[in-house]
């Protein structure tokens, strides 16, 4: 890694550390500026990495679209949980589509992907069970949120499995990043619908923004 990428990543994580405090400060403007700066940084890296790696593969454009929708979700979520969630939901489907494109190009047999189903069950099914017992109070989101959580769980589970099936640096960054993205939404689930503690919110932000910069960095490496 060169000097500029190292400085860029250090700045990104410095902003993330600052966000741990600005998001709980009660100062909306401070939080919004900090969050939008972070989201802009992972989107900018992804766009620059794609543009600087000729030829401009269509696969990379799909991932870049997923990053853009996540950026839009971050911004909209500051004002509207529903609109931000819809944007993230679309982004999740795009990210899943990107994984499907990689699976086809790399010739990975579908039968080798079965562990992704197991990971999905381990994460997603308990949420459904807890919602039925009242441990998680989805209320007006009792249908929409589990569906959203399924969308992020699909690409996160698949990403983790792809790390082991195709262990190169680019896939490690992509799969690890998408898995962290998925984990972040489970922290969000706990915070939004059960336990509003600052450490849970910070775990959500830490895993999400770490995951997104890893996903963006994956565009700098071949698969």
Task: Give the key terms.
single chain; 223 residues; mainly alpha; 8 helices; 0% strand; globular
Structure, described:
- With 223 residues, this protein is mainly alpha-helical.
- Helices cover 80% and strands 0% of the residues.
- The protein contains eight helices and no strands.
- It has helices at 3-22, 28-51, 58-77, 81-106, 114-133, 144-165, 169-193, 198-218.
- The two termini are 18 Å apart.
- The model has no long low-confidence stretch (mean pLDDT 93).
Q: Give the overall shape.
A: globular
Number of alpha- plus pi-helical segments: 8
The portion of residues assigned to helices is: over 70%
Query: Quaternary state, please?
Result: single chain
Task: Assign the structural class, choosing from mainly alpha, mainly beta, alpha/beta, alpha+beta, or little secondary structure.
Answer: mainly alpha
Strand composition percent: under 5%
What is the fold's blueprint, element by element?
Elements: H1 3-22, H2 28-51, H3 58-77, H4 81-106, H5 114-133, H6 144-165, H7 169-193, H8 198-218
Helix pairs in contact: 1-2, 1-8, 2-3, 2-8, 3-4, 4-6, 5-6, 6-7, 7-8
Condensed summary:
The chain is mainly α. The protein has helices at residues 3-22, 28-51, 58-77, 81-106, 114-133, 144-165, 169-193, 198-218.
